[in-house]
Amino acid sequence: MSVKVIDLEETATHTGPKGVINDWRRFKLESMDQENLPLAKKELLRQMSSPNKPKDDSRANLNRKMSVQEYELLKEEDEGCLKKYRRRCMQEMHDKLSFGPRFEGVHDLDSGEAFLEVIEKEHHSTVVVVHIYKVGVKGCEELNNCLDCLATEYPTVKFCRIDAVSSGAAERFSDEVLPTLLVYKAGELLGNFLACTQHLNEEFFATDVEAFLNSYGLLPEKELPGLEDEEENDVE
């Protein structure tokens, strides 16, 4: 009796049903804990993951052959592996759709010229959040701390702060209207929140500021958690 075989192409294209299926199969092979597998399964994995291409370039030999036993090994239910594969695909798609620069921390602006430059010259897809503050004014220090936290959560948003005096417009930004949050994108003012802490509770946190900005649709969607972080959470 002849052994039934199933074709598995040498390279996954990530397009079309066959490409997706083959990509999933390779991912599962790479994810298996081969050290703890029975010897029979180890040998199957070795054969299926061999990078050596056949010397015969005929069409019959260019396609890798997978036996029924090998196919059964691949299709064994593995919910954890499937979740990891789905996250990887989502992360790859997210990375491809993410445009524009990335930033670290809150940027301190030391002059009105620096303030204008960050608004006018930043990438057109970048949201710029500027906090105008003054040392000693209630709420300014707390808001600075909140923006420090949000900057780590939204690396594609450029968070900045500038002292009202350094901005050259101290007369426009008196203590009564501080702290002020200004939000720009592509040079256009999207949000102008004077004395913004009046919209928050007496004691507020980064999540409160985040919710406030999101209520106006000013923040992009959060980036997906790192794959390694999620895998660690699954283990826990």
Automatic annotation (TrEMBL):
GO annotation terms (biological process): regulation of G protein-coupled receptor signaling pathway; visual perception
Annotated ranges, domain Phosducin: 7-229
CC per GO annotation: photoreceptor outer segment
CDD domains: Phd_like_Phd (cd02987)
Keyword annotations: Phosphoprotein, Sensory transduction, Vision
Pfam families (UniProt xref): Phosducin
Family: Belongs to the phosducin family.
Protein name, as recorded: Phosducin b
Organism from which the protein derives: Seriola lalandi dorsalis
Organism phylogeny: Eukaryota, Metazoa, Chordata, Craniata, Vertebrata
